[in-house]
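Submission sheet (multi-component)
Chains listed below:
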Amino acid sequence: MGMAFKGDVCPKCHSNDYVNTYTVWHGLLAIFWFPVGLIGLAFPIKKCIPCQTTYGVGLQITKIVKILAITGIVFVSLLLLIILTKIL
Ligand SMILES: [Zn+2]
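Outcome: structure written.
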């Protein structure tokens, strides 16, 4: 527990060999909340190369990223709908 914020080491095998990965939600957040959503890219999910365990701040905030991304999609869709109904 005390090492929870030491983020750069795999919690399972303690290796520091990792790659930064992002979920689809990170991408959608960046697109639909552009440019503010780009902040999500500052929180990648770390994937351990030897044991494939995912960890890091990005993993912890994925739920929030997902909710924000969906909110952004709904907002943009509604906006487009309103614009379209005004034109037609
Ligand atoms: Zn590992």
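Remark: Residues 39 and 76 are 19 Å apart (CA to CA).
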